[in-house]
Amino acid sequence: MKHLLLSLSLLLGLSFQVHAEEALSITPEETWALVQAQGDRLLFVDVRDPVEIMFIGFTDAVDVNIPFKLVDRTRFDENKAKFAMVTNPDFAAEVEAALAAKGLDRNALVITMCRSGSSRGKPSADYLLERGFTNVKYIDHGFQGSTAKDGKMKGLRVVNGWQNAGLPWSMDINPDKIYRP
To answer: What is this structure's pTM?
Structure first.
């Protein structure tokens, strides 16, 4: 049916908006290899709130920290026992500025990384694709990885992700790369 509609649209000269594809994931190891081999031709963005980075850790392999979601400390959800997170209204513009600073444009590879890969990594990559960036991926399982399902480490983020892949990271934050509004 989809092909029939597309063919009919083309025959009749009708146009319609095609939605951007969903962002694809990339492993931490693949990202590290790309950063090492062609870091000047891509932008690696840590999309976590900088306060989260302060308590979880950071990799200096990223080019820049531009939060996709920012913690709103004025809105606390009593039921979830969490502060609200709001989309950074300047996210796409700040990513574009970071690309320009490296001499790149919206067609360059952009790789996003959050804590786990699913709550901000993929959504931030999809968000950029929807806004005209053409080559965006996100790190599967993010910086900290997934939680162990059983054993003595059950519930701790010790499975997959950047930290658990043995890639470089530290509790030290590079002041030249951390987000400061």
So the answer is: 0.85
CB 126 within 8 A of CB 145: no
Going along the chain from its start, the domains and CATH numbers come out as: 21-164 (3.40.250.10)
126's tokens:
């999809």
- Give 124's pLDDT tier (boundaries 50, 70, 90): very high
Distance CA 111, CA 124 (A): 10
Residue with tokens 């594809």: 21
Model confidence over 62-114: pLDDT tens digits? Answer: 999 999 999 999 999 999 999 999 999 999 999 999 999 999 999 999 999 99
AA letter at 168: P
For residues 46 and 124, give the distance between their C-alpha atoms in angstroms, rounded to a whole number.
Answer: 10
Length of the chain: 181
Strands (E), 4-156: 24-26, 42-46, 64-65, 69-77, 82-87, 109-113, 136-139, 146-147
| Alpha helices, H only, 84-173 | 91-101, 121-130, 161-164
Q: How far is CA 54 from CA 51, 62, 170, 174, in A?
A: 5, 15, 10, 11
Which pLDDT band, with edges at 50, 70 and 90, does 20 fall under?
low
